[in-house]
Write a structure and sequence with these properties.
extended; mainly alpha; RNaseH_sf; 108 residues; Integrase_cat-core
């Protein structure tokens, strides 16, 4: 059994798929890396957006995640992109105003 989400690569599960003539796609050795980017993205969204908001509906949560992703792509510089935003790096857009995590203001 492989370790890339063992519930999906167990012999029993694969037999069920084969019985229904469903082809599965696995890269084989090292396939755990295929999901690393998405897993890290969702972890970041979870801790920087979802867990900080108390959404009252699914549509409110979707809108909040959309705003967060827009912020990350268009305004938040990334060290792996030499301080550029993904939009600037991919689409040659001008650099945004400097954006850093703003300290939380005390409310009295």
């Amino acid at each position: 059994m492989r370790r890339q989400g063992s519930q999906f690569t167990s012999t029993d599960f694969i037999k069920v798929l084969a019985a229904h003539k469903i082809r599965i796609s696995m890269d084989g050795k090292g396939a755990w890396r295929d999901n690393v980017f998405v897993a890290r993205l969702w972890r970041t969204i979870k801790y920087e957006e979802v867990c900080l908001r108390a959404c009252s509906s699914l549509s409110e949560a979707r809108a909040g995640i959309g705003r967060y992703l827009s912020f990350c792509n268009s305004r938040r510089p990334h060290s792996s992109l030499e301080g550029k935003t993904p939009d600037q790096a991919c689409f040659n857009q001008p650099m945004p105003e400097a954006v850093a995590a703003e300290p939380r203001r005390k409310t009295t």
